[in-house]
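Ticket #739: bound-state structure for flavin-adenine dinucleotide.
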Amino acid sequence: MDLRYTEEEEAFRLEIRAWLSAVLPSLPAKPASTDWPARRAYDTHWQRTLYEAGYAGIDWPVDGGGRGSSPVEQLIFKEECEFAEAPYIGTGFVGLGHAGPTIIAEGTQAQKERYLPAILKGDEIWCQGFSEPGSGSDLASLRTKAVRDGDEYVINGSKIWTSHAEVADYCEMLVRTGDDDSRHRGISWLIVPMDTPGIEIRPLTTIGGSTEFAELFLDDVRVPVANRVGDENDGWRVTMVTLSFERGTGFVGDLLESMRILRSLTELAKRTGLWGDPSIRRRIASLTAAFDGLWALTKRNVSEAARLGVPGVGGVVFKLSYSENGQALCDLGLDLLERSGLAASSIAGADSLGDLPNAELVEAWIKGISLTIAAGTSQIQRNIVAERVLGLPKEPK
Amino acid sequence: MDFQLSDDQRALQEGIRSLINGAISLEEIRTKEGADDTVEQAWWDALNDAGVFSLLVAEQDGGVGLSLADGVVVAEELARGLVPGPLLSTMVLGPGLADAAGGMPIALIDQQSPNSAVPLLLEHPQTVKSIVVLPHMGDAAGQCRRLDPSTLTLSLVDEPLDPLTPLAVVQGTLPEGEAIDGLDAVGLRQRSLVLLGAAQVGIAEVTVELAVEYAKGREQFGRPIGSFQAVKHLLADALCRTELARSACWAAAVTLDNNDVATREADTLSCSPGEVRWRVAAGAKMLADDAALANARTAIQVYGGMGFTWEVPIHLYLKRARVLAQTLATRTQLADLLSALI
Ligand SMILES: Cc1cc2nc3c(=O)[nH]c(=O)nc-3n(C[C@H](O)[C@H](O)[C@H](O)COP(=O)(O)OP(=O)(O)OC[C@H]3O[C@@H](n4cnc5c(N)ncnc54)[C@H](O)[C@@H]3O)c2cc1C
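RESOLUTION: The complex was predicted; output attached.
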């Protein structure tokens, strides 16, 4: 049990800190959160900046073009980025966190050369076409069909909840290539260019009023067979590689952001006078303990990943606890705002209070609601913990 | 950074677990339920011979010289085994200090706030040979004092909540005792909080293990109850509580062990290393108290009517968790302590 950093790790931290303080001041202004093309431009600019400095793909292996940093270095990097308030991964998330790592693990040499550098440089943005109107938690029931026609697949069906589809160049798509009832034995993983004829993108408006995700209608969409990653009908296994990646250090940035919000809520409570209410103080104290615990759990998970080479089961435990505590944090934020939390756009507080963070906290509260749904609902995560970690019997099918 | 059990810690964990299962055992412990003295000398000797009580004492003072992080591993195991006695206080104070005060086992009691309306309760009154009194938490300059238990007027409580933790009410005001020079009251309280937290983690863990085993075997509606989601989800949440609390206790122990860690954390949080130590210790016990109490209750729920019987040992863990949760600082006190630091 050791929480000390080595001299090399400390040196790496200082290097990152110095670099961030040099590049961050010249960053363009942050775009409006609902302007997706502007967000894409902002995110890709940042990715390019990382690339030029040699920090792109910090969690990617060297043979994939990444930096191949150890899990501890990844942690340090993400921590420093958060402290310096560097931009988030944003629309780069699917390419850097899912599609890229899948291609590294399962793609052909030609696929690696074609797609990986463009992700690292911020030239190309990916989206994830897994969920369908009829298949969410039960992903293996998906029905979007891909039929071979010569050296092409012809895709028909639809995808839903596809985040930032409007601004994506490629989609990592799961399609049915086996029989209708083949479930996870008949799925393939395809690279689908988003400008292929036959793809209609219909934006969906979230409860936050943003067109963050979309529905994709796929009508005779033709993609080369060469765009398949892994064998035909082996896409489920290929996908699992991707999903386990997400449960590793994927949430470090979110966790640190939550911890920053918690500190700002403490300040807010002190400014508004609600700090004088012991029940508020104790809620803040409980959340502080919980988030400190989640940070310690992250370090355990990172150490486990460093030892085993792959993330362990701790990631699922982390996601469940983090989602619940994240929502409690966001609820606290709204409670502290009292009636000003009814305004989702900025309003000025009384002079003595200074600016109210109401817009930011309302946005966080709304976003917080998706924590227990996106990337596997909390109910599904509990099933996973119960069956895979505790070894309880599976549900009858 | 390698924030996992080291090979040595794993060996220590296994060693203590097999010692408890062999030389002590739950069956033997349960024969002591309701006794005025629930600690068998042979158990105490076995733990002492294994070095449990001198574990945290520096080598130059004749101890084993291990760290609090190692102590946390041992405290988890002692609590998993439901071993009764003033174990954690003897561990944290050490045999040398106990000898100077009148011998082992040694109790650590908290000087209550002068206006507390609740009587002072001493655990294991027939077992302890010496006592150290911690100054009241609000008394920053206070010194630890040693007391001879025979100078106290004690009246045994007829029915302690935990039948394995006998209690006595201390009548009248606590005698002055003798100040102990050089014993850092703040550090002692912080280390004790972390060990108490670790014990709660042990309880949180073992109660879930018992419930999982039961849920695999017990059938209703023609299938194991563990295949019902309502049961699975209770246990999945319980596991999350254990692992969150365990992470916090480990981190707290390492932070108290290591000045560098506390200093760098203080840097990050813009506070003093001393404040970091309080923060991690209070937070760890808070999460661990929550985990132990909630998990023991969850386990009883999973056992159904059987869980409400005296025979099934889970109630003993729940009651022990109550004892630990009420020791040195309650949840509310911990929350107030923590909120004063942020
Ligand atoms: C903000 C956001 C972004 C997203 N981005 C993407 C994306 O980019 N690409 C993509 O492919 N998907 C994306 N998703 C989809 C997400 O993965 C799914 O919403 C999620 O897997 C749940 O599926 P569902 O919405 O169909 O709900 P359902 O599966 O229909 O679930 C509805 C409810 O039933 C419960 N339930 C279902 N099955 C069980 C069971 N076996 N046991 C117990 N309870 C059960 C669920 O927990 C939930 O409460 C996104 C979702 C959100 C909210």
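RESOLUTION NOTES: The pocket of flavin-adenine dinucleotide is lined by residues A 127-131, 136-137, 161-163, 213, 370, 373-377, 379-380, 383; B 229 (CB under 6 Å).
TICKET STATUS: resolved
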